[in-house]
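Most newcomers find our protein records easier to grasp once they have seen one. Sequence and backbone structure share a record, each on its own labelled line. To make this concrete, we reproduce a full record directly below:
***
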Amino acid sequence: MGDETLKKIAQELVQSVRRSVTVDWTQRENARAKIRVMVKRILRRFGYPPDKQERATELVLEQAEVLCRAWVAC
């Protein structure tokens, strides 16, 4: 995938995750599942390789947890 496509994916993922996170989303499995589905849909829409989607989804969730700590600290 090209850099421009990956940049668009990243931007959309950040916007969507920011809109979707709740205070306790890291503790509630149903909230995490909702975000996981959202991430997979975005990846599919942009043609992200299916064999790499699972790892990419987990990476997005890990990064979102780190970012949320920063969002809360502000």
Helices lie at 3-20, 29-45, 50-73. The chain has one domain: 3-73. The first helix runs from residue 3 to 20. The chain has three helices and no strands.
